[in-house]
Amino acid sequence: MMTDRQFRETIGKGVIESHYLLASNEGLLIDNAIKAIKEALKVDESFDLDIFSLSETPIEEIASRLYITPLASARRLLVVRDLEELDNKDLISFADLIGNVKTDNCIVMVYRIEKEKRNVDNSYRKMLELMPALTSVIFTPDKELIHKLIINKVQRDNLKLSSSVIGYLEEEFKNDVTGLKNEFEKIDNYLHETKKSDIADIKDLAVGLCDFDRYVLADEFYDGKPMLVEHFERLKPYLSSYAEIVAALTWGLVRRLRAKKTRQVFSNAKVKEIVNDIVMIDRKTKRSSYFAHLLMDIFLMKRLKFV
């Protein structure tokens, strides 16, 4: 098994193995590792890159692509995702297929660790047992990595963040790369919307990013609280998509309908009306329609009249 650092060092030297098994509970780290391999091989994505999902693609179809000669690159890159979804029988068949491949192409198998578990389970270990010659790497986020990502982001985008803000980010997201990425998106939106050039105080960050959680907004919506619209306006700059609000409102409705105390608050007709409105907004959002913004505004304001 190779460490993250060893992986980076060998890739930096241009040493690319033929079979990789990459695992992490952070999809971003896996994507970055695949990107590093792709750049090292100088893969032409139009001709010499195949990405498969084992939950969607039959093993036989993957097998038919393993021996194709690269067209515009020195080596082809084949990425096979969702290894964790194979049962023991299919895992053995897949390992037998991949293990017998004699090719100069590069095959990257991806194993996604559940966020809550943070550790590999039996299927990953079984794969190592079945294919002892493959190169395996587990990417685990830690404080050192988070610090590096923060500093790289600050330097690359010339962000002006105070030491207190950087300290907050390091502590709050000490092992959560995806959470850190989302937080930086909110910071970018905050600086853009407020026309500020820096975040000098942790209070700026707190007011902008912490106080108005979208799930709190969902609770305010179903409780019919009058500060709902005001809070939504303050939350808008930090949303990457209205789909975040759609998800929060849907989750909030399901949670309340399951709870005995709040189950009778909404009539069936009212639930149907809310769901229909949410579905309409969701469709507009997916189509990147400007009407999604207007529909969401009307939907939230109309809710205050329901109570």
What does this structure look like?
It is a single chain. With 307 residues, the chain is of the alpha/beta class. It has 3 domains: 4-139, 3-Layer(aba) Sandwich (Rossmann fold); 143-210, Helicase, Ruva Protein, domain 3 (Orthogonal Bundle), CATH 1.10.8; 214-303. Helices cover 56% and strands 10% of the residues. It is built from 15 helices and 7 strands. It has helices at 4-12, 27-41, 45-48, 59-63, 88-99, 122-130, 143-156, 163-172, 177-194, 202-210, 214-223, 228-235, 243-258, 268-286, 291-303; strands at residues 19-24, 49-53, 77-81, 106-112, 135-139, 160-161, 198-199. Strands 2-3-4-1-5 form a 5-stranded parallel sheet. A two-stranded parallel ribbon has the order 6-7. The radius of gyration is 24 Å and the shape is globular.
What's the topology here?
Elements: H1 4-12, E1 19-24, H2 27-41, H3 45-48, E2 49-53, H4 59-63, E3 77-81, H5 88-99, E4 106-112, H6 122-130, E5 135-139, H7 143-156, E6 160-161, H8 163-172, H9 177-194, E7 198-199, H10 202-210, H11 214-223, H12 228-235, H13 243-258, H14 268-286, H15 291-303
Parallel strand pairs: 1-4, 1-5, 2-3, 3-4, 6-7
Helix pairs in contact: 5-6, 7-8, 11-12, 11-13, 13-14, 14-15
